[in-house]
Amino acid sequence: MLLSAGSNAHGQLSNTSLEDSHFFSPCSFSGCSPGILPAGWELLHLASGANHTLALLKSHQNANTELWGCGDGKSGQLGPSYQAGGESSMFRPLDLSLERHGLSGYLPRLVAASWETTYVVLSRGDVPDVVIAMGANDFGDLGIGAKRAGKLPAKDIHIVQFDHLTQNGVSVDSSSLFIETLAAGQHHVVARLKTTAGYLTVGWGTSRHGQLGDVEKPFISSPAVISPGRSDDGIVSAALGHQHTVFLYASGTVSGIGSNRKHQLDSIDAAAGARSVACTWNGTYITIDDEDDAWGLLSAGDNAKGQLGRDDDGHRHVARVEFPFTPATHRLLQIACGSEHVLTSFFVLASSTTEVWGWGWNEHGNMGIGTTQDVRLPVKIWPPQEAQAQSGRVGIWAGAGTSWIVVQ
């Protein structure tokens, strides 16, 4: 089942209401009992924008995937099928009308969301991947070219093109394109491409603060090659904040570009043994394994709402999040960053169960603990004290004042 808490003015929690939820409550899928996913399907990923949410589901029967959505779709961020109703307070399948664009047979493989825009990587067998964008285009968010930057009619999907790019002086061969990763911040996007010539990191959207590299433009409205400040060989993934971008390398090192006004990039390149990176709007989070193979979680950036998960008297440099337990009792599984709050999941060694802990901005009750006060140090938010410990698979996601927990 899927549970959600937090901001819900447009039904983006999919709990059939338009009221904020201060406790985790069941999400609804069209045609299903509250909280229960469609029969025979599993949840692969959730992506959240300002007021819309997308769920990528996979069929157990044939491994096909489907994209479902809820919340605000008035800017086109939920595809053309949402234009009539505008918004929905429960998940329902999205009809992207792919056949009209010559994309019959393609299935969604990756999904990401910025403020009012959605990005979907479509795959079909051994043919090249296709990236589509839909929704608002305020800062070139759609990635479809400078002539079309700004407001557009919210009526269709748009195909993002990459054949104008060059790699080592040679045009990128879009006939063999594979999208390895795709990540979105509030108004910028970074993708890792695999081509016949190797790997390429590209981005588009707002770039005023250097979050897309050394670009002397307020925004880039079509994909451009990004220089991450060092060789991009070995980049594993990227995490995006509001005005900064962080890269994780296969070597276990980290680099960052963009704004450091909130100290979100301070000394992050000194981290070693990194295995994942994540960002809030104004923070950076790095999971590490040290020499003794014990995990740690480092945080840097804005701490006005307790986002760093440590009582540091306002210091924002890189340091460890302060958990009330050690790697000897809990094993870190996953981290999920929202706009200005963080969720983490742990495997409890003594009981072989899973717990979810969270901290940070809580104005909309997105911690799911019944209050709207900010949480400055990690607290256990799931399962509730009265609930039975969970031994099955648990997944977590976080959005703009929203939190999500799936139990399978």
Instruction: Round the mean pLDDT to the nearest integer and report it.
Output: 92
Distance between the termini: 7 Å
Q: C-alpha Rg, in Å?
A: 20 Å
The biggest sheet, with number of strands, parallel, antiparallel or mixed sense and barrel status, is: 4 strands, antiparallel
* Class based on secondary structure composition and strand pairing: mainly beta
Helix content: under 10%
Query: Helical region count?
Result: 0
Strand content: 35-45%
Strand order of the largest sheet: 2-1-29-28
Low-confidence stretches: none
Total number of beta strands: 29
Order of helices and strands: EEEEEEEEEEEEEEEEEEEEEEEEEEEEE
Shape call: globular
Features:
408 residues; mainly beta; globular
What does this molecule look like?
This is Secretion-regulating guanine nucleotide exchange factor. RCC repeats lie at residues 1-59, 199-251, 354-408. Keywords: Repeat. Pfam families: RCC1. It comes from Mycena venus. A hairpin with a 4-residue loop joins strand 25 and strand 26. The chain has strands at residues 2-6, 21-26, 41-48, 52-59, 65-72, 87-93, 107-113, 117-123, 130-135, 158-160, 166-167, 170-171, 178-184, 188-195, 198-206, 219-225, 235-240, 244-249, 254-258, 274-280, 283-289, 295-301, 319-320, 330-337, 341-348, 353-360, 375-382, 394-398, 402-407. It is mainly β and 408 residues long. Helices cover 0% and strands 45% of the residues. The protein has no helices and 29 strands. 52% of the residues are buried. A four-stranded antiparallel sheet has the order 2-1-29-28, with no helix packed on it. The termini are close together.
